[in-house]
Amino acid sequence: MPHNTVDFQELLVRGQSGDKRAIGRMISHIETYGLTENLIMRQLWAHTGHAVIVGITGAPGAGKSTLTDKMVKYWISKGYRVGVIAVDPSSPFTGGAILGDRVRMNDLALIKEVYIRSMSTRGQLGGLSLACSGAVSILDACGYDIVLIETVGVGQSEVAIMNVADLVLVITVPGLGDEIQAIKAGVLEIGDVFAVNKKDLPGADRTSRELQMMLDMNPNMGERQPPVLMVSAEKNDGVGDLCDSIMENYGCMKESDELLTRRNRRLREELLAYMQDRVYRRVLAPVIEADSFDDNINGFLSHSRNPYAWAEEIVSQIEEKIK
Ligand SMILES: Nc1nc2c(ncn2[C@@H]2O[C@H](COP(=O)(O)OP(=O)(O)O)[C@@H](O)[C@H]2O)c(=O)[nH]1
Ligand SMILES: [Mg+2]
């Protein structure tokens, strides 16, 4: 599929009328060619801004996929249309998790009001958060009221993905021992709603109390007092209350201008990333590739040539060009 022959506008119209194949093709297009080709975001913009974007994070095995499945079904029963983006680790070490996710959320794909899609953390043009944000915009533009992003729960990409969401649900479970280990530093601060999953297992009460205490004592929380709810995804117990709490939280954010502040910051960062990507691809990449970038890098390491002098030369060449 040569990217210049894709009629994105036509796919968008089809996606908006419920054609999931068209949605899939738009997202694949972004994954393959990056977000900054074909003015995709420009075409989407007018149709976006309606969806509630929820990031879901928590250690692998905490029950994110199981809970996502139940939350989606609850919201569907309330008349919402829901999109799900599951971020795949694409790593041989966590390959099992992907398979598990497929099993746990398998039948979601069959529901008319649900669109589910996994995205890989590997090989994204312009970075995963940009691609993910593009996929969110596509789902938003196609009329999905809620978009859930399930992250892999490991690594640095975590917080970056969270920048795509309006609000973040952090999931923890009893029995991981020290809560401080269970919830990584930094993740506590990005949580808007907390769920202690697997409340059918022993120790859930204690975990919930400890978590509440950690939140109360955290100096970075300020005025915020995020709710902590106990659920069992597997037994479908407490999921409705959790979903309602998320929407209530969203409502408060909207009223207090917090939502606007967050979207403002996000758009700013996204625009910078978008422009950097375009400028890199259109201006910098052709120049450094013409000067055999990789060969040069190898040469620099033997100290036969100064890499910074080379970088200066490249920049001067570009400055000369755009004068
Ligand atoms: N006992 C119990 N197990 C659960 C619950 N929710 C999920 N699990 C199990 O926890 C394991 C990991 O769940 P999964 O949804 O794949 O976690 P993820 O890695 O965070 O997406 C699976 O074996 C689930 O069946 C729960 O509420 N109670
Ligand atoms: Mg999962």
Describe, in short, the structure shown.
With 323 residues, the protein is α/β, with parallel strands linked by helices. It has helices spanning 8-16, 20-33, 40-45, 64-77, 95-104, 128-141, 157-162, 179-182, 187-190, 204-217, 239-255, 258-290, 293-301, 307-322; strands at 52-57, 82-88, 114-120, 146-150, 167-172, 193-196, 228-230.
Give helix and strand order, one letter per element, not per position.
HHHEHEHEHEHEHHEHEHHHH
In oligomeric terms, what are we looking at? single chain
CATH class category name of the largest domain: Alpha Beta
Distance between the termini: 36 Å
Ions, cofactors and other bound molecules? guanosine-5'-diphosphate, magnesium ion
The CATH fourth-level homologous superfamily of the largest domain: P-loop containing nucleotide triphosphate hydrolases
**Rg from Cα:** 22 Å
Shape: globular
Fraction of residues in helices? 40-55%
Please name the CATH architecture of the largest domain. Answer: 3-Layer(aba) Sandwich
Low-confidence stretches: 91-97
How many separate domains?
Answer: 2
The chain-level mean pLDDT equals 84
CATH topology of the largest domain: Rossmann fold
Instruction: State the strand order across the main sheet.
Output: 3-2-4-1-5-6-7
**Largest sheet entry:** 7 strands, parallel
* Annotation, overall tally of beta strands: 7
* Count of separate DSSP helical elements: 14
SSE-based structural type: alpha/beta
